[in-house]
Amino acid sequence: MRAIVLLSGGLDSATCLALARREGFECHALTFDYGQRHKAEIECAMRIAEQVGAASHTVYSLDVGPFSGSSLTTDEGVPKDNDHPGEGDIPSTYVPARNLVFLSIATAYAETLDAGDVFIGVNAVDYSGYPDCRPDFVDAFARAATLATRRGTQDASPLTVRTPLLRMSKAEIVRAGLAAGVDFVLTTSCYDPQDGAACGHCDACVLRRRGFEAAGVADPTRYA
Amino acid sequence: MRAIVLLSGGLDSATCLALARREGFECHALTFDYGQRHKAEIECAMRIAEQVGAASHTVYSLDVGPFSGSSLTTDEGVPKDNDHPGEGDIPSTYVPARNLVFLSIATAYAETLDAGDVFIGVNAVDYSGYPDCRPDFVDAFARAATLATRRGTQDASPLTVRTPLLRMSKAEIVRAGLAAGVDFVLTTSCYDPQDGAACGHCDACVLRRRGFEAAGVADPTRYA
């Protein structure tokens, strides 16, 4: 069983990779370099792919210039100490259609490697309000992806998009990752790291800290 | 009304752009530079965008290295004098999930420009047997794309993927393009051009030649 696993270098995708490995998949990790200001993510992804035991790891460069506008890739500041990430409006850190583009490229890569499964660590509970993290989107995408490829024309099984974290709280993700052997020291979540340390105040830091607290696990993150 | 129009530089996409213009859309053309051996396409796309009157034209560089394997981007020869393009197996010129990836990036671009429509010149009649040219795929994609973006969460109209050429024969496309003012001299279809001249024998050349013949229109293509 061969799978493509989207790996950002954060806590969620590291756990997703470890769960895919635990299910017995030969995992080919795929990380996007899209000019994100948190480039440290990419180095984390490389270390995690090795620690968790991915069969291969590809870093794919994607130019989001023509569809930028997200505070993750521009000089606009990221929001800090947002008390309610996940509620209300889509935050400024949203990159237009990011998961759609990422999953499409993962689908092309899956077709090339004849992998039947694509894993993505999206989460519909403790999430940041991005539209492309919702279950409806993932289901619709899997259908489109199957029809877009040889799988849709031949007598082959459809492409399966797996989202093992979809219904987990952040605390459950922390516990599942630890149980599957993830070394969270290697992960980074911060949107705005300073000198290798997490800012502690962006949406991603707030969600991550709460996750460790709620799981009753010591947070290994180095904060600025 | 604002639209993104995928523009390859070929006969179909040029006609698609002209039809979108005729419907009154402000057209933002999007061309992919993905290392295709028929690079002349990109220069054609630039000239067509200007001739037909696109509001803007973006050439987007996409690395298909990790999912290559198509004879369009490798040193493998393209098939010649195939008597039955469109029937039987998927040809070697197929780039894995290409339209899925192209449409995903067009969707991100549409969201950035607040365009509600994406035009793509796919055709289910005189086509080359690619899975991602089929109507089922286009419908499934439109649903996934709407759910992937702000349009799926707010009180906005869904993203519309328009395929004005879907049910046309090649001859009908030639006639529609001429009627909408396309100068077909500016277009190129050949997968394997030599010194700026079309080879006359690849699937794309065969379909194009037959189209002009069936339309009863002089073929302006310069063949090697």
Give the SSE layout.
The structure is a homodimer of 224-residue chains.
Chain A: E1 2-6, H1 11-22, E2 26-33, H2 40-52, E3 56-61, H3 98-113, E4 117-119, H4 135-148, E5 160-162, H5 170-179, H6 203-215
Parallel strand pairs in A: 1-2, 1-4, 2-3, 4-5
Helix pairs in contact in A: 1-2, 1-5, 5-6
Oligomeric organization of the protein chains: homodimer
Number of helices of chain A: 6
Helix share bin of chain A: 25-40%
What is the straight-line distance between the termini of chain A?
42 Å
Highlighted features:
Rossmann fold, 5-stranded parallel beta sheet, homodimer, 11% strand, alpha/beta, 224 residues, 6 helices
